[in-house]
Known about the structure:
The chain is an alpha/beta fold. The chain has helices at residues 3-17, 37-50, 56-62, 81-90, 150-154, 162-173, 196-207, 227-235, 251-257, 266-275, 294-307, 329-341, 362-368; strands spanning 97-103, 109-114, 120-128, 131-135, 139-141, 156-159, 183-186, 219-223, 241-245, 280-286, 310-315, 346-348.
Amino acid sequence: MSSASSVTQALDSLVESSTGSAAEPSPLGNNLLDLDPDQAIERLRAWFAEHGEPAYRATQVFGRLWDRPVASFDEITEIPKRLREALAATFTIPSLELTDRQRSIDGTEKFLFRLDDGQLIETVAIPDGNRMTLCISSQAGCALQCAFCATGAMGFQRNLKPSEIAGQVRALRMLTPAILATNVVFMGMGEPMMNWKAVSPSLTLLNDARALGIGARHITISTVGVLPGIIALGERPEQFRLAISIHAPTDELRRSLMPVNIKYPLSDVVAAAAAFDRRVTFEYVMLGGVNDQPLHAAQLALLARECRAFVNLIPLHPGGSMGFAPSTGPVISAFARALRARHVETAVRRSRGLDIAAACGQLRTERLGRRLPIAADQHGEVDVV
């Protein structure tokens, strides 16, 4: 079976199994970090009531899960030791295990976290003046097999849970000194819209003032164009940002680079972007001699103007290039000028972390090698919405 056929069959299975645009509530388990703030506080209140304790204890404990996070209940010294021990016997607050940390000369840092089943995921911290942007993962691996992506080459392993998605931001907050995110982008490993049931509560944890408290307009979800997920995001009341990975301005070229284009062709993706009630960003990785010619710029400008999209041109990171050559600086500059001449607002992303394994999936692959992938449509937790 071709890679395109396997990807589209997986997506067909996911869409057919979808039951609506809203995420189902997470089951109430003992891991408090997998629950949204209302669920977690409700469970804690019920538990403290059973133990004859006042209700304020629940918000007191919840404040140490995300806002001022601790690694164990024993560190919550504002409550009596007997309660700390009883909480630890009932609930869990697992922390991600940091196994590697690389720092670039430009200040960019990449973190490799080990999950409880041995899977590894990546997080990147990008400082820029007063901003600290965290690029977080939503899956271990990815099923979509984009030709230029190291994560796609490793294949899909499993979805992440809310405690593992928002937990990446929490883990960096727990470092000494702490790394405090001002912005979060779902542009790490995985396709967020293929794990919406975990991504949606993760967005709540990232945004809620009682948890991580990051403004919705500072949180961006990047997708290849999984339409049910775009609809689901648009139905949320918060002003979360949407970025769509376009990477090619025609269906023919995009299919050769991104098999998902067979299921979700450009016309449908652009229509979804036009219908989204907030401004959309087009992400466009510049591949030397592949998608960086003047004709491509003219074609991309037509798509962007159709949905009033902002275009973000991304130099290909050579560490995860999968055999592609990065476009040269002059070619990227000429491409940007061609877009602006057609009245398309355009930015060129600065290359960061070139001296470390900062390409998506690169560090994980160095540590684990190429693991046998799991078919996305055979994984019980995978769902679009």
